[in-house]
Write a structure and sequence with these properties.
It is found in: Cell membrane. This protein has 19 helices and no strands. With about 500 residues, the protein is mostly helical. The chain has 2 domains: about 425 residues, MFS general substrate transporter like domains (Growth Hormone, Chain: A), CATH 1.20.1250; about 55 residues. Helix 12 packs antiparallel against helix 18. The radius of gyration is 22 Å and the shape is globular. The protein starts with a helix and ends in a 7-residue tail after the last helix.
Length: about 500
């Protein structure tokens, strides 16, 4: 039996559950930051004198660094110890957040956002891999990942509420400062997190793999972000997307031939694990589409305040919590993963389909609320199950990179989905307004028509995802998965 397995057996079960609280706090901080800064963006733009053309970089700087460095961050967690990587990521993220809150100019804020993304790329896979190696039993693992999945799927809605509160009653800078106390509290979990166990054979870092992965992901994420403003047919966007695909293809080629790959093919070759990565990548298209367009619909069409908009998203969070923490956590040990993921994707598709019916005079209770509940419940099933099986069955030495891969899937899916749906909505709005005399009422109608068209595309993507994931995931009984996980978790832990 390996030293890791021995230490896992001796681990106090109560310590694991206390550790889960601190791990989830770190995950909440990362997820909050995705939406909380969106609420603060208009105020920050006015305060720092940022132009309309440059404001997108406040978001893009974070997503570029985060999305492109995740695979490297996951492997760093495996090499240096995931507990140590967790602490480095926490304090680095908190420091970058404080720097951003104190920004006196656009350049300083941009640098802080990029640093946030870089440290998040270390923190996110470290947190998920700590969870993966802490909970190996079927029942407790299902409960733990139910909680974690609820935060991963619903934390963004909490960010909208918190961002609205902080921006309206304090200052936009507190949307960044708030990360500091959260990080300090999460760091207090150092003593209850599973210790790092070093292995004598420390493999060298796959530098060619790092080069191809980072540059390929940068090109892909940057190309998607530029597509929002330049359009998908612009030369720069096409060049970046093509370059990203070529570099990532080269990365896949290299990983099959090097002795110690950055992303071992064994991590993604399992059908259920690959299905989990695909489910996350495609599911967040609907999720981020809902955040983006409902935020604009409620504020620009329904004239909600930022705070009221955040409150309006709370039923979405409730749906996620019920599905992930209540339903998925109970069913995960008993049913095959696709029996939860596929219905979750179908429910989310029903929610986005419901939102295609929105009109300028549709009431919140009749239009927005049912769509939120359906999407929230569906996403709770998808994220809790997918986060579980994305790391289920991998050896402890690969837990970090497996965690990074599912996080990368989420980032790439969000980048492509947001850019794609935003382009669809913008084009539909332009077509609706073409040849008409613009009035405030007509502009609202045009926006609503654009959002509805985007939700049609989101629905098609979620339905397609349900078909693909249903075909890809094995209908394997949970006991068989658990048996394999127990065997592979006995592999040495590289700390």
């Amino acid at each position: 039996m390996s030293e890791f397995a021995q230490s896992a057996e001796k681990e106090n079960p109560r310590r694991r559950w206390i550790g889960l609280v601190f791990i989830c706090l770190a995950q909440l901080m990362i997820v909050l930051d995705i939406t909380i800064v969106n609420i603060a963006l208009p105020s920050a733009q006015r305060d720092l004198g940022v132009s309309n053309g440059d404001r997108q970089w406040i978001i893009t700087a974070y997503t570029l660094a985060f999305g492109s460095l995740l695979l490297l961050g996951g492997r760093i967690a495996d090499f240096t110890g995931r507990k140590r990587a967790f602490l480095i990521g926490l304090f680095g993220f908190a420091g970058a957040s404080a720097l951003g809150g104190a920004a006196v100019g656009f350049g300083m804020l941009l640098a802080a956002r990029a640093l946030q993304g870089a440290f998040a790329a270390v923190l996110a896979p470290a947190a998920l891999s700590l969870l993966s190696v802490s909970f190996t039993g079927r029942s407790e693992r299902a409960k733990a990942f139910g909680v974690f999945g609820a935060i991963a799927a619903g934390g963004g809605a909490v960010g909208l509420v918190l961002g609205g509160l902080l921006t309206e009653y304090l200052d936009w800078r507190w949307c960044l400062y708030v990360n500091v106390p959260i990080a300090v509290i999460a760091a207090a979990g150092w003593y209850v997190l599973p210790r790092d166990v070093r292995d004598g054979d420390r493999p060298r870092l796959d530098l060619p793999g790092v080069l191809f992965a980072v540059t390929g992901l940068v090109a892909l994420v940057y190309g998607c972000s530029e597509a929002e403003s330049d359009g998908w047919s612009s030369r720069r966007v096409l060049f970046l997307l093509t370059l990203g695909v070529v570099l990532l293809t080269a990365f896949a080629f290299v990983e099959r031939r090097v002795a110690k790959p950055l992303l071992p093919p064994r991590v993604v070759s399992d059908r259920t694990r690959a299905g989990a990565y695909l489910a996350v990548a495609l599911a967040v298209v609907g999720m981020f589409g809902m955040f983006l367009f409902l935020t604009y619909y409620l504020q620009a069409v329904k004239d909600y305040s930022a705070l009221l908009t955040g409150v309006a998203f709370l039923p979405l969070t409730a749906g996620v919590l019920v599905a992930a923490g209540g339903v998925a956590s109970r069913l995960l040990p008993r049913v095959a993963p696709r029996a939860l993921v596929v219905p979750g994707l179908l429910l989310a598709a029903c929610g986005t389909a419901w939102l295609t019916t929105l009109e300028t005079d549709t009431s919140y209770a009749a239009g927005v609320l049912p769509g939120e509940l359906l999407v929230g419940f569906g996403m709770g099933l998808v994220m809790a199950t997918s986060m579980n099986y994305a790391t289920h069955g991998v050896g402890a030495q690969d837990a970090g990179i497996a965690s990074a891969t599912v996080n990368t899937s989420q980032q790439i899916g969000a980048s492509i989905g947001t850019a794609l749906l935003n382009t669809v909505a913008t084009d539909a709005t332009k077509d609706y307004l073409s040849g008409r005399r613009p009035t405030p009422a007509l502009l609202k109608e045009g926006l609503t028509d654009g959002f509805a068209t985007a939700y049609v595309v989101a629905t098609a993507i979620l339905l397609g995802a349900a078909v693909l994931v249903g075909a890809l995931m094995n209908a394997r009984r949970p006991q068989r998965v658990a048996d394999r996980a127990e065997a592979t978790h006995a592999a040495p832990h590289l700390g």
